[in-house]
Design brief:
Herpes Virus-1; single chain; 8 strands; two-stranded antiparallel ribbon; two-stranded antiparallel sheet; zinc ion binding; 4 helices; alpha+beta
Length: 203
């Protein structure tokens, strides 16, 4: 490995006549770039692609993501949005941002450009997962859609306990027709079999 000088380096620079190899975990430390799309090409620090924008940040420029200072010139660790040319950020910060938002919401944090920003970041070795944002995990909001499922009567008479609920009969659980945050068994609130709705004392 051209970075750690240990054996087992399986990634070789794709530049013709370059025989430098490295481990994937060593790539970032050694300034190497791996492009996570199409051919999945990798390049050593000498042959890696450079951003198309030729500019340097003004003195005191902050990373738009972490609000910490960036280098005073464009480097491997300091990047800029190719569309607005005003948004500067650390490579680590934009990589973490990409992991968080996924390909569906990945855009420049400043100007919101999608296509040009997306393609440049891929070319520059930013891995963008093909998935929705992490906060849209299908399981994340299950608790919000679960209905109330126990009897809140002051004295529950059900032999099976407050959690038992049947489709019909005296142990059918009715939820408050106004808030649905409280429930009762028909028998526990002395409700007639013909009663279709029940309202809790709070409502």
């Amino acid at each position: 490995c051209s970075v750690c000088h240990q054996g087992g380096a399986t990634i070789t620079c794709r530049e013709m006549n370059c025989d430098r190899s490295f481990h994937l975990p060593c790539a970032m430390e050694g300034g190497c770039i791996t492009q996570y799309f199409e051919l999945y090409r990798s390049f050593c620090s000498d042959h890696r692609p450079e951003q198309s924008v030729k500019a340097d940040p003004e003195k005191g420029t902050m990373c738009i993501i972490c609000m910490e200072p960036v280098d005073d010139q464009m480097t491997f660790r300091t990047m800029v949005c190719p569309a607005c040319k005003n948004a500067w950020f650390h490579r680590d910060c934009i990589q973490n941002h990409a992991i968080l938002v996924g390909t569906h919401c990945f855009c420049c944090p400043h100007c919101k450009n999608e296509y040009k920003f997306h393609m440049e970041m891929l070319t520059m070795g930013i891995r963008i997962p093909i998935r929705p944002p992490s906060w849209e995990n299908a399981q994340a909001f299950n608790d919000l859609v679960e209905g109330h499922s126990c009897c809140d009567a002051s004295e529950c008479l059900c032999p099976g306990g407050r959690e038992q609920a049947e489709e019909e009969g005296p142990w059918q659980l009715l939820l408050c027709c106004s808030c649905a945050a409280e429930g009762t068994h028909r028998q526990c609130s002395n409700l007639n079999p013909s009663t279709l709705e029940w309202e809790c004392n709070s409502c």
